[in-house]
Amino acid sequence: MLNAAALLLALLCAANAAAAADLADKLRDDSELSQFYSLLESNQIANSTLSLRSCTIFVPTNEAFQRYKSKTAHVLYHITTEAYTQKRLPNTVSSDMAGNPPLYITKNSNGDIFVNNARIIPSLSVETNSDGKRQIMHIIDEVLEPLTVKAGHSDTPNNPNALKFLKNAEEFNVDNIGVRTYRSQVTMAKKESVYDAAGQHTFLVPVDEGFKLSARSSLVDGKVIDGHVIPNTVIFTAAAQHDDPKASAAFEDLLKVTVSFFKQKNGKMYVKSNTIVGDAKHRVGVVLAEIVKANIPVSNGVVHLIHRPLMIIDTTVTQFLQENAENGALRKFYEVIMDNGGAVLDDINSLTEVTILAPSNEAWNSSNINNVLRDRNKMRQILNMHIIKDRLNVDKIRQKKCKFDCPGAHCQQQHFPVLQRSR
């Protein structure tokens, strides 16, 4: 009788092991997923989850691992202990990593589903173990990267919210980028509650490099800080809808500021604030900032570190072009100006009110442009056509068809018809 019971127990254990092995077998047999399988195989907790529990596993491809820059991949951050099909994925799921940091699920207008910054590839495997527990695998195109604490900072909380990250940024693995200046302004303005708010938000944090201009930090007041937060919306860069303005926390009756994301062809991501309705302290206009460290997940959303503060219009047009001289979105435009002798900058500096129609780097790639570039006189006329002797924002252009003067003896009056682009 005892032998029969022992045999039955052995058979049940074998059946459980065989059933649990189904998902592991699927991973092991797919050569495109071998790197994740190797990590999973060596992780005792992950193996236990596969053997005993329902779960969803987000599995990066080998190609995703080849692009992954960090030395460590966190297997448990790719696992949640409930089974979710693509249709049933909620806005957030708790990962199995220590502290259970959330994974954020978003969908774009094309119907793509993202886990943090990783897109789910339309490939799905569903397995059921002997207890009827469902186990689901989603293939993703990027390794999920949690916010982790540097060695030697064991007291720093895992899974911080945006405020705790801001207060302890130097203790996290974020490429040693400092945010002390902005942090001190948040404290002085008593705006910690903005970063401490529960929910799912997008936080934009300027780095210390962006405060080289000595007076800039003093311009960061409570409203500017509000303008660095997109409430109730989590935006990772891969899932971001480009040039789709979102209302910031500084969007009210007397001040209206939106924030949007866009990407250059060279892969660089930018955010821009647009102060649509300003006041005495906050001028109407657009401020552009490059994202220098994107997609830092926190417990109440996502943080992006940006190279300068938004909303603050404290540079001249010439200074802005010079800031773009090395790797910026208008690098080629500045190069052409300087190749032409730089006199165009003198024209710009002589104007009290000026608008620049600045071609992007890609706009200069046309083969028709190359011949013109060699004719300095013709090029000077063309450059002058991109300068308007007036402060002209988009709303003023939309009001009517406009005629404006550009500088230079050979420059004709420019006529700008307004074309509305459908989205």
**Can you tell me the CATH class of the largest domain?**
Mainly Beta
Report the span from N to C terminus: 75 Å
Rounded radius of gyration (Å): 27 Å
Range of strand content: 15-25%
SSE-based structural type: alpha+beta
Strands in their spatial order, largest beta sheet: 2-1-7-6-5-4-3
Write the layout of secondary structure elements.
Layout: H1 2-29, H2 34-41, H3 44-52, E1 55-60, H4 62-67, E2 79-80, E3 92-94, E4 102-107, E5 113-115, E6 118-128, E7 134-140, H5 162-167, H6 180-188, H7 192-196, E8 201-206, H8 222-226, E9 229-230, E10 246-251, E11 256-263, E12 269-277, E13 285-298, E14 301-306, H9 317-323, H10 331-339, H11 343-349, E15 355-356, H12 367-373, H13 376-384, E16 387-388, H14 394-399, E17 402-404, E18 414-416
Parallel strand pairs: 1-7, 8-14
Antiparallel strand pairs: 1-2, 3-4, 4-5, 5-6, 6-7, 8-9, 10-11, 11-12, 12-13, 13-14, 15-16, 17-18
Helix pairs in contact: 1-2
